[in-house]
Amino acid sequence: MSRRRRSGGGHRRLQDTYGRRAKADGFPARSVYKLEEIDLKVRLFRRGQRVLDLGAAPGSWTMYAATRVGLEGRVYGVDIQEHRAALPPNARIEVLDVHDLQLDTLGAFDVVISDMAPNTTGVRDADMYRSYELFMTALQVADRVLVEGGRFTGKIFQGKEFPDAQKAVRERYGETRVVRPKATRDESYEVFLVGLNKLPVAPSAVPEEPPAPEEPAGSEEPPASEGGPERG
Ligand SMILES: C[S@@+](CC[C@H](N)C(=O)[O-])C[C@H]1O[C@@H](n2cnc3c(N)ncnc32)[C@H](O)[C@@H]1O
To answer: Among 1, 45, 112, 125, which residue's CB has the most CB atoms within a 10 Å radius?
Structure first.
């Protein structure tokens, strides 16, 4: 997908309009309209769903998702920064690094969304790579907590690692999309990779074959793998 770089004041005025609209609609960030566009394109959310929002501050995506899933649904967001959103009772955001999530006890989610972005340094390749790393972390979190058939959306800067990220999404989801929402700033390299219909077993969820234990000399015990549980 080629990045559109439009010049002139017209598009910049449109960008400013998103900022004003977010303020008027009570959202702390204009990025809410990116999620809205993705949602309108692929129907990310349904009422009653559980949503995990990675990189949730200042809180616009969490607010939007909470409205879409309704009070019978739940949204849990994490970010390394404090949020500043007026959240409804079915949503919360914790100050937490995505790498510190306790995935074994987190529970299951129907949708995982990630708007995580690194602090940019201006060194283009380094920024692209850090964005790729955050994207892959989000994808791996989804491997662990997203239900089969679930939906994933993650932000990534479109650099040379982008094809690898796209391939990783294709391996895990029945259908994939690349979306560059209209609310994205002209100068931004970001796009969103969407995975629909999570497949039963994600590649990274298949455990590595452990090394065979050495048999003590003269042992009568059968090898550990015999009669053990099968990997599914
Ligand atoms: C573009 S902002 C998210 C905006 C948010 N979706 C909203 O609508 O309000 C990107 C966020 O990613 C967060 N972030 C970056 N690295 C992170 C990490 N390792 N763990 C959690 N959040 C991270 C940043 O702190 C930042 O708040």
So the answer is: 112
